Structure formats: C-alpha cells, structure tokens
Amino acid sequence: xxxxxxxxxELLIESxxxxxxxxxxxxxxxxxxxxxxxxxxxxLGYISDSQLMEAFLKKFSINYxxxxxxxxxxxxxxxxxxxxxxxxxxxxxxxxxxxLFLAMVNPLxxxxxxxxxxxxxxxxxxxxxxESSIMKAIEKNYGYxxxxxIWNPLNEMHLDADMQFNLDKNIEFNKPEDKEEIDIxxxxxxxxxxxxxxxxxxxxxxxxxxxxxATDIHIExxxxxxxxxxxxxxxxxxxxxxxxxxxxxITSRIKxxxxxxxxxxxxxxDGRSTVRYEGRMIDLRVSxxxxxxxxxxxxxxxxxxxxxxxxxxxxxxxxxIRELLxxxxxxxxxxxxxxxxxxxxxxxxxxxxxxxxxxxxSVVTIEDPIEYELENIKQVPVNEKxxxxxxxxxxxxxxxxxxxxxxxxxxxxxxxQISTKAxxxxxxxxxxxxxxxxxxxxxxxxxxxxxxxxxxSALNAILAQRLVKKICDKCRVEFEIPQYLYENYPxxxxxxxxxxxxxxxxxxxxxxxxxxxxxxxxxxxxxSSLRKAIPKYNSDQDLCNLARENGMKTLIEDACEKVExxxxxxxxxLTKIHYYE
Length: 581
Fold this sequence. Notes:
This protein is an alpha/beta fold. The protein folds into three domains: 8-142, Type II secretion system, protein E, N-terminal domain (GMP Synthetase, Chain A, domain 3, 2-Layer Sandwich); 179-303, 2-Layer Sandwich (Beta-Lactamase); 308-468 and 517-555, 3-Layer(aba) Sandwich (Rossmann fold). Helices cover 40% and strands 22% of the residues. The radius of gyration is 27 Å and the shape is globular.
C-alpha cells in the first residue's frame, strides 16, 4: 500500500525516464494547461507512451488493456456519458458484479476514480491504456463524430486534383491575347500531363522527397536537361536529371495537381496540393517562375510530422524550456522569436502553441501562409492582395475576445504598434521578427516606432535561434581542430572549445556525416533591471553586457556547448553563427 499514493513524477524519475529539471518544466506547464502530468511529459517529448506504460506496470499491480479495437456493451457505456469519457480520457470496458473496469490514461488519478465511483455507485478497477487507444475506442463505441469522420465518405471517393479536372473539363478558358499563348493546345497539355509514366514520375519525385526529409523540391530547366534538387537539412542536393523532352509534361502535371493555369507559361503562378502518404496528409505549396530555359518550379513540403515538434526535441536546453513555459503562464505581454529566414521560428511558435490550455483560452493565429493546421486553434491567413494584412487582421481579431494571439511576423510599424497595445491590454502576444539576436530585437522595435518605455512594459522575453546540422549518431568520431581554422577565425581561441566531433559518413546519413538539424538558442528574459535600462540605454552592447551579467547565454556560447557534446560540428557553427564581441 505504500506505493499506492506515490506520485507519477516520482516513479518516472526513479525509473530514469525523466530528470528532476524535466519534471519541473512539465509541472510548470501543467499549471497553465491543466493536463495530466503523464500526458504533459509526452507532449514535451520527454517520455514516450511506452515509457509511461512501463513506469505504471513496474510499480503497480495494474493490468494493461489495448482499447483500439474494443467493442463495449451499450449497458456499460450508459454508465458514463461521452463528454466525461472524452474530457477525462476514460472508458468503461466491463462490469463484474459490482465492479466497473475502467480504462484510464492515468490510473493514479484518484479524483477521477472517486468521481466515477460516485456517479456509477460501483467499485472501480482501473486499467492502464494509451490515450490514442482510448480516444479511438470512444469514437467507435459512443459514435464520437470528429470532423475527420464526417468527411470520411468524401475521402473514400478519392477526389484528387485529376478527377476534379475531369469533372470540370468543359470549362471554357478565356482566349489569351499573346500569340504564343494562342498556339498552345490546351487538350494536348492536359493529355501529356496525365500520361501514366509522367504521373508515376512526378509522384515518385514527391514521395521520395518526403521520405528523404526534404523541405523543398527545386525543378530547374537547363539547356539540355531538367535538374531536380531536394533541400535536406538546409542544403540543396541534386537527386535526378530528367530528359529535356519530358519538361513540358512534368510542368503540366505539377500545374494540374496544384490547380494552376497550364496555358500560362510566361508569368509566375502559385498553387497548392496535398498528397496522402503513410496515412497522413502532406501539404504542398507550389510556385512557378519563367526562366531562360523554361519554367522553374519550387515545391514547399509541409509535413506535420516534421513540422510539429515538441519543445524538448528542438535542441533547447531545459532551463530555456522552463523559462518559456513560465512565459506562457503570464496573462499578458509579448514573447518574440527571432532569427533569419529558415531558422525554425515558426516551428518553435507552433511548439509553444501546442502547450496552451485550449479548453479555457481562446487562441488565434495570424499567418502568411498557414503552414500547419492546429486543432482547436483559430488560424487566420493573411491576404495582402485584398488588403488583409497582418495589422488589419490583428485589429479584427482583437475584437474576437482572444486570450492568446500569435502574429506570424512583425514586419511594419502598424503591426508592431497594435501588437504592443494588445500586450499591454490583457493579451499574450507571440510573434517573430527578423533580427540577428535578442538585443537587436529591442532596437528593431524602436526602429518600428515603439517608444522604449512601452517596449520595457510590454516585452516579456525574446528567443533568438539558428538551425545547424546534427552529426550522424552512427558515424560520429572525435575531431582535432586544424590549425588553419584558428588562422581563418581568430576569435576561435576566445571560444575555448576543448573537443569537437564530426561524422565520417555512412549509409545512415547518405555519407554526408550529418542527419537532421537542431536549434541553437539565446534566451533573454526581461527582468526588472532590464525594464529599467531599456528606456535609457545608449547602445546594444550596454544591454548585452547587462543581460549577460544576469545570466543570459549567447547564441555562440550555446553553439559551442553543442560542439563539445557532439551534437554539431565546429564547421557548422563557424558558418551559421556570427560572433559578436
């Protein structure tokens, strides 16, 4: 009986699955979200479902049940209503005498056990189950209708872009004025774009890019061939060279699936499509632009599996995670994520949004464009063509009673002014801005016309970040820093790096020595001393010195730690992170 009342966090620490600091981070987030500690740890990426199961089974005489394909008798389902089952993530599975067997994500949730006991008038025997299997069983047995289920009949019809075209094949196109465009035979373009070998070739290019973890596909016409390149871990790599005589067919096929006008070849176009792969929908953003040898096509791949990443998987130190979670607990103020294009700002913002309590708060995002669909969050796309800019959208959204607003990017003075006012009037504002580091963000806000006293009042924290390539775990070896690097980078001696690593190259990483990317971070918390200094500071260096006295670790310092622990290479740090005196 001594084990019975022990807390789950203690068991996970004892089992070696989480550290004390990770548990503290989860507890800080739990205050905001109200979720169970086990689920919070899973969402932060600290533990897996299986580790949570193992911790339970190791210490308690609790049976495990897989509810995924479970069919429950209607008389048992009537003991609990569906709303409670969904909210508490529980499921009545069986009854024996006066005992109700209850599948639970957290069998140590004694308040829920007592509540169910009171409602049903029965003794409760808890059973351990994963959240995913319980929710699947609730949907199956209670007839819980999610939007995905409502639309399922349409999904089964497989109305992809090709079939949509066939339905609309009689649409009349306006006759182009340009003579070259008049000579194009529309039916012929569609015909070559729908030939089975071309359909297969384009599909293989797309699916292989997803399997290779590519973020973009570049299809570039050359004089004698068409070059296909994937951007993997930030770098472009040629993967295929296609015969020039297939260029028109490939271009037509991509335009068809992304609902572009296939007759327009001399103007840029934008389109989008989706592809289903391994049970998930992957969004494709397609753009074309005319070049000297034909239309260049770039396809941005938005895969939620790659894009929605727990905070702990971003390479962020635990102390920064804890600070960020504390920022999310604040009722108002601004939190900025800063860095150049492609530094992972949007991924970090999405990771933060997934940690909010969506049941008790109204969360709205303004994005250009919406990159990933987030459940239970209102996402608003910017459309500058009709004047619906970030600032216009923000003005409208503030009349929608939001608690948390995520502004994709602060680009102009108007957006900065409205965001600041929102942060001062009871809203938590998350946003991104393009600056080199945390201190430069304060200067950027001043340049956008925000008075320094308002900045010091509204700003809660700033997170600067970069992405660097990770060394492949399979072929990592210790690496002695060559002398020429000290000659080319004189400041390297000041960094005092004791040891470094590199990847030799193996099949696992495609003989590149790298696999995946990880973030490098600089976190600035606006404490009382900085609030007093911001209205009267004379230079960025003054603020930086004060921030470092208060414990701020710079980007280059975090990067050097990742070099010494074998996460990334010195070469990556020297090329991706600027050193500031």
